[in-house]
Amino acid sequence: MNIRPWLAALGCTLALCSSAAFAVGLLDAYRAARQNDPAFTAARYEREAGQYAADIGRAGLLPNISITGSFARNTGERESTVVNVTQSLDYDDKQAAIVLRQPLFNYESYVRYQQGGVQAAYSDAVFGRKEAELASKLSTAYFDALLALEQLALTESEIAAYGAQRELAERRMKGGEGTLTDIAEAESRLQFAEAGRAEALDRVAVTTRVLQGITGTPMRDLWALHPDFMPTGIEPARLDEWSALAQDNSPEIRARQKALEHASLEVERNRAGHLPQLDFVARAMRAENETISTLNQKSSITAVGVQLNVPLYAGGRVNALTGQAVANRGRAQAELALAVNEVMVEVERQFFAVQTGVSKVAAYRKAVDASVVAVTGNKRGMAAGIRTNTDVLDAERLMFVARRDFARARYEFLVSTLQLKAAAGVLSEKAIAEIQALLVPGS
User: Fold this and answer.
1) Which of the residues 20, 299, 347, 427 could staple to 422 if both were Cys, CB 3.0 to 4.6 A apart?
2) Which pLDDT tens digit goes with each residue over 25-60?
3) Domain spanning 64-105+276-310: CATH 2.30.110
4) pTM of the model
5) How many other β-carbons are positioned within 10 Å of the β-carbon of residue 29?
């Protein structure tokens, strides 16, 4: 059913959202959401912060250079116990030093370096998951808005049909063929349809506002689903192929894998507390009046060497931290297994939703065609005197129910297709563009 005329008719209602509204396709809405959705903006910053983990971890393996300086004014006096002589001991102490420290063997710093790379990869995986969530959320909101518009158009058609049937009943009564019951039945259906229009208008306003909240852009003329669209399936056509795609590409699984890798490295990092550390140290220092015994003296000292630190006992802290890290690694393993199971279940759920969606749309299409024939037949039967006004009204009601179910099934198929790709980790802008090819640009 072509709903584009009703998209224009709804201009006044949807303009309440903003006077700056413009026609927008699914791909345009997706790109706007990437720029304006607050949750996705937060995800971008989260990813950016995560990328610094690699640099932070690398810093522990690189030289550390520092400059220190001090100035102190010392006051005092010295009295002789032999003669009555007092000597002033006031002097200024000045020191400056530059120190270079380069780790030669520091296993903990090396593990931190590895963890930095894992954390950066983890932030990428989390961002990929939120990208898929945004695409799925945006597409669902877009199709919800389109379905609301289509249902409103169907409600208007229903009102027109019941109104025409009421007028026919009134004419038949004036001609001596109809009854007050026929008029009352048609009026009752008409009023129910009027109430349905009020609900449909509410759904249009709500779904449009939800879509606007995601995209940050006021919209009015959405691209409608092509009236002749009939789903034929999805590629690949086998569940095991989708499961394999999910194993390789699912950002949720990848994030949990990186979390497990990080937890395993955390065990190694804590065990490093038992290992010695060896640093290369170079120091250059200049001092003036360093102590009371070196008054009026300046010194320059350069030292180059290695420093070894061998831990002996830390009160059991290293063992406790290692045990804690081992427990956290076990938790990460369990969470990975849980994530794999949940992703596989979601892939299977959406795959079968797509498969059944094809047959549902085909069945509802046949139901719509049959209901149209039934309405035509009942109208002819009423004209011939073998059908009643109630028969026609019932046939029309079934026709509009079939049309609503048909419309809903088509959008549910598209949503399931996108959610299947999201679960498998292959939902991209290209997939959004492929779905947009099934839509008709708004007027």
Assistant:
1) 427
2) 899 999 999 999 999 999 999 999 999 999 999 999
3) no
4) 0.80
5) 25
